[in-house]
Every structure is written in C-alpha cells, then in structure tokens.
Design goal:
With about 400 residues, the chain is α+β, with helices and mostly antiparallel strands. The protein has 3 domains: about 120 residues, Gcn5-related N-acetyltransferase (GNAT) (Aminopeptidase), CATH 3.40.630.30; about 150 residues, 3-Layer(aba) Sandwich (Aminopeptidase), CATH 3.40.630.30; about 90 residues, SCP2 sterol-binding domain (Nonspecific Lipid-transfer Protein, Chain A, 2-Layer Sandwich). The protein has 12 helices and 18 strands. Strands 1, 2, 3, 4, 5, 6, 7, 8, 9, 10, 11, 12 and 13 form a 13-stranded mixed β-sheet that branches. The two termini are about 30 Å apart.
C-alpha cells in the first residue's frame, strides 16, 4: 500500500479549523468546543484527507498505551473520524482509514483502539470487538452501611501524581484499561463552567490507596443532587470499602450516583442486590493488532510455559500474513516465523484473543479461527485474563 498524497497532518490553522467544523457537523456539536478539544490534542495528532479545495475526511489520534497482561503496550486511540456529507459514498472513509493504518504500520505503535460508529466498517480494516465500557448507577440509599478506618481527605492540587500512581497500580492488571497520556488525564480535570470538580483521597498511614473524582449537579425543580464519578480506583479491598463509605455518606443529599465499572468489577459486588447489576450503559470498543510480532512481544504474559503455531490472514497489512510460532515462558513471549501451521487465525480473531475478549472456542464459532485445534488449549491458557474493559471514552 503506497503512501497517500492526499493524507497527512493539517496544513496550518485553516485546515485545522475546517476539521473542527467537520467534526462538529458530523457529531451534531458546537464548533468552539470541538476546536478546543482539537487544540488540546495538538495538530500533530490530527490527520486529514484533502479533496478539491476541501477536506474529504479526518480523524484524531490519542498516542497512549493499553494494559495487557500487566504491561503497557503503546497504541493509537482513534477518535473524531468524520466525513462531510458531500464526500460520503465515494470511498473517502475507506481511503482515510487505509492511509492511517499504513502510517501506523510504518511509524506508529503496534495496536490501535477505537469506539465504532459502524462495527462492520471497521471490521474491513482488521478491527474486532475486544472489550467493554460499562456505565452503571446506584442510589446511595440502596447501599448498605460501610465503615472504614482509613483516612479520607480532600484532593489537593499537588495530589495528581499520586492519583496517577494509584490508577496505574489498580489498572495495570486489568486488560484493556488505558495507560493514559497527559491529555487524557487533563480531561479528567476539565469540567463545565457550571460544575466544580471534587476529589477524595483515601490513605493508609499517609500513603494513598484509593481516590474519587466527581461532580454534583442539581436537576431543575429537584432538591436532591446527582453525583457523576469522573474517575475512581482502589488498590486494596479495605480502600474499596472506604470508597463505598464515602458514597454511602452522600445519601442525605444525593439521589443517584453514576460511575464506570468493569463487567466483573469487584466494586459491583458492593452495590449489587439479589444479583441485579445496575447497568445504565454499555459499549464495545474495537482493537486492531497492527504489527503482530511487536504486539505479542510487547504485552505481559502469565507465568506458564506454552506454545502455539498459527497462520495469520490479514487483508490489509500483508506484513502480518503467514505462519507464526508463539512461545511463552517466564512471563515473556518469543515470536518467530514458522514454515507452516495447521490453524488459521484471522487478524480480527487475534485482536479478540489478544485482549481476552474471546477464547479459541468463541473464535471458531465466529469463523475467525479455523483448522487444526491442537493448540487451542495452549492459546486459551496463554491469553487467559480478566474481562477486558476501559473506563475512558475518547
């Protein structure tokens, strides 16, 4: 796939503004907030596809990491994929994504992740559903009383490095969670002018073990408030109960608390009654393995010894195609080319397997893993892990 002369970074402020207008029109937003968002990312993280005097399509990139197997793997998070009405149906979206993928193969990280507007469209480029975003809500009055001996104090302006450290300790073992870059952390700090960001840090002997970031809003004509948790994390069971004690303490003024959680989140067991999970929203994000060898050697692995051979098929990135042998030992992977393998794994199947979203049996039902099943057990063991999820929308 040759370089696309129409594709590249915006050529100055005028094209950047045109892309902001395009994003606003595509997602029914306002231009100035979109411009502020794009400015926060920086022009170096925007790509456009130029037409005859106008932009035919564009997207934005979050250069970040994603945790898999306890290690952060560099990835691009794609957002703001926008095509103007005059360019739709002409293959501009396909051209934009193909050019972006080729750029990433040559110069970018080994993974890409996105939230799809059209799952079928992104499947054409080797993306596959690979994890959850789950939004849930609970009424504080429905929580059981929680008590904690840990110290809780307000968030201070110097506490953000400590928050990031707690987040990393809590999330690095959870497949799919983002290793946030500075911009994603800054987004946690930005709230509407009508709101106040509040935070609580929970400590043991002066060392943070958990935190809450939240805002409070009042509905018109209502006395009670709604609490939106913008971010939260805990590293010990006692700190998790201390967070719930903070939420229980809001019951006299807060009617409902909304939050993000993993599908199998340990915190849900603290709010679930009779097995009913109070889920208000769920979305599936998609993953793309851009470079097979780098993605496999870059992630963490369980302390097992196993190996498997498979032939990768990739309709968009020919460099990934062919037979590979994956050997895992002592928490590391050795990846080599193989002369021949009797199982065939579609690149989309590798994405779902890589995150732990699907095992070999599920991939076979989807038609993404075919042929000899002698290594299915080894693949299941090597890629076993917690249910993949992320707490961020980008």
């Amino acid at each position: 796939m040759a370089r696309n002369a129409r594709y590249g970074k915006p050529d100055g402020a005028a094209e950047l503004r045109e892309y902001a207008q395009l994003v606003a029109a595509t997602f029914a937003g306002e231009i100035e907030p979109m411009q502020a968002w794009i400015d926060s990312l920086g022009a170096q993280n925007v790509r456009v596809l130029r037409g005859d005097g106008k932009i035919d399509a564009g997207l934005s990139i979050y250069d970040m990491g994603q945790f898999f197997g306890g290690r952060s793997v560099p990835c691009w998070g794609l957002a703001g994929v926008a095509i103007p009405s005059h360019a739709r149906g002409r293959g501009c979206g396909y051209e934009l994504m193909a050019a972006n993928l080729r750029e990433q193969v040559e110069d970018g990280p080994p993974l890409a992740v996105l939230y799809p507007a059209s799952t079928a469209f992104y499947c054409k480029f080797g993306y596959e559903q690979a994890g959850h975003f789950v939004g849930a809500s609970v009424r504080p009055l429905e929580l059981r009383p929680f008590r904690s001996r840990l110290h809780a104090r307000p968030l201070g302006s110097d506490d953000w490095p400590a928050l990031r450290a707690v987040y990393t300790r809590a999330r690095q073992g959870e497949n799919g969670s983002l290793d946030r870059n500075d911009e994603l952390w800054e987004r946690k700090r930005r709230v509407a002018a009508s709101q106040i960001l509040q935070g609580t840090i929970i400590e043991r002997e002066g060392k943070p073990e958990a935190y809450l970031l939240f805002t409070l809003t009042r509905q018109p004509g209502r006395l009670m408030l709604n609490m939106a948790i913008r971010d939260w994390a805990h590293t010990t069971a006692e700190a998790g109960e201390a967070m719930m004690a903070q939420l229980y303490g809001q019951r006299s003024v807060v009617e409902e608390i909304s939050f993000q959680a993993a599908p199998n989140d340990a915190r849900l067991r603290l709010v679930v009654h009779d097995g009913v999970v109070p889920v208000s929203e769920t979305m599936l994000w998609m993953l793309r393995v851009v470079r097979v060898r780098d993605a496999l050697t870059g992630r963490g692995w369980p302390a097992v010894e196993a190996e498997a051979a498979f032939t990768i098929t990739d309709d968009v990135v020919p460099e990934n195609c062919g037979s590979w042998r994956l050997r895992v030992k002592d928490g590391k992977a050795e990846v080599k080319r193989e002369r021949r393998a009797r199982a065939t794994l579609d690149i989309r199947g590798l994405a779902a397997l890589y995150s732990g979203f699907q095992g070999p049996a599920g991939l076979r039902r989807m038609g993404l893993l075919e042929g000899d099943d002698q290594h299915d057990g080894a693949l299941a063991v090597m890629f076993a892990g917690p249910a993949p999820w992320m707490a961020d929308i980008f």
